[in-house]
Amino acid sequence: MVGAWATSVRTRMRRDDGDASIQMAIVFPFVIALTIAVVQTAMWFHARDIALTAAREGVNAGRGYQSTPGDGAARARATLDRIGGDSLRDSAVSTDGSTNDTVTITVSGSAISMLPGIPDLHVSQSASATREQWTAP
User: Fold this and answer.
1) Paired strand residues for 107
2) Where are the transmembrane segments (predicted)?
3) 28 in any annotated domain
4) Block means of pLDDT (10 residues each) for the chain, length 137 residues?
5) How many domains does the chain have?
6) Does 19 fall in a domain?
7) Does any domain span residue 30?
8) pTM: predicted TM-score of the whole model, two decimal places
9) Lower CB density within 10 Å: C or N end of the chain?
């Protein structure tokens, strides 16, 4: 009786030979694609954080008493040079939207694309704050 059971188990196991390889061949490309998508998303968020940090630094410099939006743009550019590295490509700093009362700094660029045939992902972040002014009480 035990011999028949063991033979039956061996026969069933032989019929499953190669199933794991076929399953991996089907599932593995999806796992790789999901992994690349997660890494790509993280790279895009990191590039956004870099752009936002540079914009905030620029606004902090440009809103000071007797500072100009150009001072803010220079600080934003220096911040990008310091922390941007290869994570934010083709970066640009703009002071469009600044007025006598507010300073607006916009930092744009592109995050590296890991997927072949897909262009780099656009990133644009801006920060705005009121300018410090001397007023009489």
Assistant:
1) 93, 125
2) 20-39
3) no
4) 61 66 86 91 94 95 88 94 88 90 94 85 94 82
5) 1
6) no
7) no
8) 0.77
9) C
